[in-house]
Design goal:
about 210 residues; alpha/beta; Rossmann fold; 7-stranded mixed beta sheet; two-stranded antiparallel sheet; 5 helices; globular; binds S-adenosylmethionine
Length: about 210
């Protein structure tokens, strides 16, 4: 759930309904759903940039928002995508966007708190989850870190052998605790960092 402060970043969620184009897709962004447009964030674009070959893969778009990440994967040849988010506003967006891009037969939405309602295994998990504590209300004592720690502890149960995870982080919050968690769990990962909009954006690719 977004909190109610009025800062520049809050406009990523607290905006009027928008229609944007991303990577050839028509993306409707209802009010209250994260706007992935590269003018305001780089996290979604960085996942798309490093998505790699997705041909014939089964994809989970965890924390899907509009569903743009999973839909780009479908447009690039993924066979199936499950779109998961704990927000029902995201469900509305995903349904509209699957229809608008003629992808209904390949994608479905599941309302889920992380993996709670997920019962399949995937070849690729895309996870552009909440990072900035100021933007997302932190139900948990450790804010967005708790969410990413839980994600990191649980994803292995939902990833096929040889599967990959693309997880984002950004310099809104220090990266070191996330790196420590990755190391304590013994994961093999690759970290790519780029600076855009005055922020460092991290893309963590984890492979089993
Ligand atoms: C930064 S937005 C990214 C949205 C989308 N992946 C994109 O790149 O545009 C993070 C998304 O994670 C969702 N989210 C937050 N907490 C969640 C949870 N516990 N389980 C599933 N999704 C969650 C939010 O509702 C939001 O849609």
């Amino acid at each position: 759930m977004p909190c109610s402060i009025d800062t520049g970043v809050n406009k990523l969620i607290d905006h009027l309904p928008l229609d944007i184009q991303m990577h050839g897709l028509n993306i409707h962004v209802p009010s209250g759903v994260f706007n992935p447009d590269a003018k305001g964030t780089n996290s979604s674009s960085q996942v798309i940039k490093h998505m790699g070959d997705v041909g014939n893969l089964k994809v989970l778009d965890m924390g899907c928002g509009t569903g743009v990440l999973g839909m780009v994967a479908l447009a690039r040849g993924a066979t199936q995508a499950v779109f998961a988010d704990n927000s029902l506003l995201a469900q509305k967006a995903v349904e509209i966007n699957l229809r608008a891009n003629d992808l209904q037969s390949k994608g479905s939405f599941v309302q889920s708190d992380l993996f709670q309602n997920i019962d399949h295994e995937f070849d690729l998990i895309l996870a552009n989850l909440p990072i900035l504590n100021e933007l997302w209300s932190a139900d948990q004592s450790n804010g967005t870190y708790d969410l990413v720690y839980t994600f990191l502890e649980q994803f292995t149960g939902y990833l096929n052998e040889n599967g990959r995870v693309l997880l984002t982080w950004a310099s809104f919050e220090p990266l070191q605790p996330v790196v420590q968690k990755l190391q304590s769990l013994g994961y093999t990962y690759d970290l790519k960092t780029e600076t855009k909009l005055g922020i460092q954006w991290h893309l963590i690719e984890i492979s089993l």
